[in-house]
Design brief:
single chain; 201 residues; alpha+beta; Glutaredoxin; Glutathione S-transferase Yfyf (Class Pi), Chain A, domain 2; four-stranded mixed beta sheet; 7 helices; globular
């Protein structure tokens, strides 16, 4: 059985819980509390030199980090990853977008607002993060005017990747009411077979 190491309240870790639930992948879950520095223990650093969650460990001891790389691994040969070159490339396009243009704004805003004290100096970056996050949400809104899902015509791991932090964007200070297609897409994701909610805190 594979083992996943992560923090349940993290969107990047939730992606993997959701994918496993929807694909029926049995796994062991090891909760790593990054707020207590458990990700910096010698034992965890032996799994991932960067000290970041999530991490996948296979039965043979091999490990893989980076949430979207793990998603891609789990989805190989399943309905959640297109088998044609174009569909796979479009799925990866939106997964790269999630990590480069979406997660650094929305996830970081959520972390600052939810977990850091009111006077923390990182709060000075919230205005810029909000502007960039709204640009990302606007790009998603435009895409959803043309296609129902982020991989194209079918639900894929690109939707899982983007759902993870978009569905809690209100905790990051974003008004999803300004993006009705995104709101409708979120509801459709929650209607997919095997859906499980984030174990938030």
């Amino acid at each position: 059985m594979i083992t996943l190491y992560g923090l349940s309240a993290s969107g990047n870790c939730y992606k993997l819980q959701l994918a496993c639930a929807q694909l029926g992948i049995e796994h062991a879950w090891e909760e790593i509390d990054v707020t207590r520095g458990e990700n910096l223990s010698p034992e965890f650093l032996a799994l991932n030199d960067r000290g970041k969650v999530p991490v996948l460990r296979l039965e043979d001891g091999r490990t893989l980090s980076e949430s979207n790389a793990i998603l891609n691994y789990l989805a190989q040969g399943t309905r959640l990853l297109p088998d044609d070159h174009w569909g796979r490339a479009k799925t990866l396009q939106w997964m790269f977008f999630e990590q480069y243009s979406h997660e650094p704004c929305i996830a970081v805003s959520r972390f600052i607002r939810k977990y850091l004290p009111a006077q923390h100096p990182r709060r000075a970056s919230l205005e810029a993060l909000q502007a960039s996050g709204n640009e990302a949400l606007a790009a998603m809104e435009r895409h959803l005017a043309r296609l129902p899902w982020f991989g194209g015509e079918t639900y894929t791991i690109a939707d899982i990747a983007l759902f993870a932090y978009t569905h809690v964007a209100d905790e990051a200070g974003f008004d999803l009411g300004a993006y009705p297609r995104v709101e409708h897409w979120l509801k459709r994701v929650m209607q997919q077979p095997g859906f499980v909610p984030m174990r938030n805190d």
